[in-house]
Design a protein that fits this description.
single chain; alpha/beta; Chitobiase, domain 2; TIM Barrel; Four Helix Bundle (Hemerythrin (Met), subunit A); 3 domains; nine-stranded mixed β-sheet; nine-stranded parallel β-sheet; 24 helices; 18 strands
Length: about 725
Amino acid sequence: MVALRRIVASCGLAAPLAAPLAAPLAWAQSPAPDPHLIPAPREISTGGLATLPRSIVVVSGTSDEDRFTARELADALRGRGLKPAIGPTATGRFRITLARLESPVAQRALKNSRLSFDDAMKPEGYVLITTGDATVAIASTSAGIFYAAQTIKQLIRTDGPDARIHTGVIRDWPAMRYRGLHDDLSRGPVPTLDYQKKQIRTFAAYKLNVYSPYFEHTLAYNSNPLIAPPGGAMTREQVRELVAYARRYHVDVIPEQEAFGHLHHVLKYDLYDHLAETPHGHVLAPGQPGSLDLIKQWFAEIDSLFPSKFVHLGADETFELGLGRTRDRVQRDSLGPVYIDFLKQIEGALRYTKKRFLFWGDIAQGSPALVKSLPKDLIAVAWGYGANPNPSRLLGTYVDAGMETWVSPGVNGWNRVFPNNDVTLRNIQAMAREGQRLGSTGLLNTSWDDDGEALFNQQWYGVLFGAAASWQNGESPIEEFQRSYGLQFHGDATGKIDQAQLKLSQAHALLASAGLGDGSNSLYWVDPYTSEGQFRAQRIRVVSREMRVLAESALVLIAQAREVARVRSGGKATGVSALREPDVLDATEAGARRLDFIGMKFQLADEIVRLYAAATDSAAKGASPGHDLGEIASSINSRTQDLRDGYVLGRELYEKSWRAENRPYWLMNVLNRYDLAAQLWIQRLDKVNQARAQWARTRTLPAPEEIGIPRAMPGVVP
């Protein structure tokens, strides 16, 4: 954290309140504990941990927004085993006051503490002053009051025999105006409305203020009812309910409807094929009669449903442009002018809505001279998802053109059995740091579902770091976040969940070191006896055991953290709560088991080949191959059963996690893969058992190829 962070030894507030916040304080010999807040405040002076009585009163101003915040805070404290009451006449041994800046109590508290409330703080900033018997939260707006309340939640510890609260002083305000999460609703999983509300609550708790659902075909349009899949689209009623719900949490719902590329699920229908650049393709053809009309129909309905002043047009990855209906035009004018011209047409056709339009910056950045002709109120969103992105290159074209920009990192959960959080954190850190340096006003973190298998509950680690990095000023320290996540998100004071996350990141790194990417789903599904599987087997062999130990260690750490919390919460009613977000832990465990299974699958596949070779050798010498065959396939405890069981268990855990967040739509597409993978090993089990029966009859064994087993695995000594 670039801003001032001071640690004061005393449990009281006499020292920090008596001196101006900007004055330096010497380090005490016994520094006060770090509250590990997410996001870390811009300025913080902490005292010690004071015992928090169970009886608490929460007092707010008279505005509906502030009273909602008081109720929301009280509900959260009640869920942590405390007994809050609300209102100025309520009684309680600890008082939390939510005060607007202009109120006498706020002015008195600021004066007595010699604290300032700067203009930069007014839109969303706050001051917190906490002693052993009271907290005063001061803000200029309802958003500031709300964010102060979220910090109060994090200052309270309920992981010991008594509830405690960190005393101290905080002055805090965001570095970036727009801090959001972009959620793919079009490549498989579509969340339930209840889960979207949970997302909204959680985003807001970590000071995100934008939720951007991504639509290709999963918004139900009255004007185009064919497009939305039954059971897999948001209805108008659901949109209105979600938007109203999000408003209370100071979250702006900004829809993205793809308006150029990524429209295969529209263009696959013959009713719309005449609008496609290529037959049943992905890209809407510019200049084709009806293309602009379709866009206007969609966005007229969006305008009626989403009150946000922003709308996202998408317009990324238009790779087919120039390969079909616009081929002649692109050959004549080149790609850039055709793309830019259609983007301008879209903006012009929708200008009547008085919205501000975001668009992905990947295509237009290749035509810097033409970008200067775009309307200046368009907002370019620059995306890059690698561990070492180049935000300056991604943003430069638009900065030079004088356009507003947002940066867009990613949680790296798509196409993977579990997100690669090492890449995720470094990506977000760089994009937020450089975005701030180059004047970007927003950060839109992204969760994509490219192969339809991603679970959002596996991605909160990256989501929360995106919240931290967009709120905090400058470069957000990764290590600081890694020490804070388990405590603040799960209520785990043991550090075991933080350690588990590090183990899973290390497992990803091992796969990458072996040239196998970073835990891709293809590794999980590939048959190790195909040519592709054998190629990957040679690479994973050198890291499989170490990777498995890391994944299994993560499972042990999570189990230990759960057990500590279970024991604590099973005692007397002391306000101690069990681990929070159990569904997220379930999804994390499912991901760890999938990583472990990848290693086990290739290990056992090698063992099966060696065992069958040994059985064949024994049979040729007239000796019984029974032991070796039994190790491959038997009624209990054999390699083929282990692999069958791994996919069956994986299916059970995956389905449980899917249903905790998503609608049934699309689920069978994934479960069918589990079923087919399990059946493959069942078939091999049966064939080996048949080989055993053949030996009993004829004293011969079939060749390994006849039962689906290679004669040898490349790189394995028989």
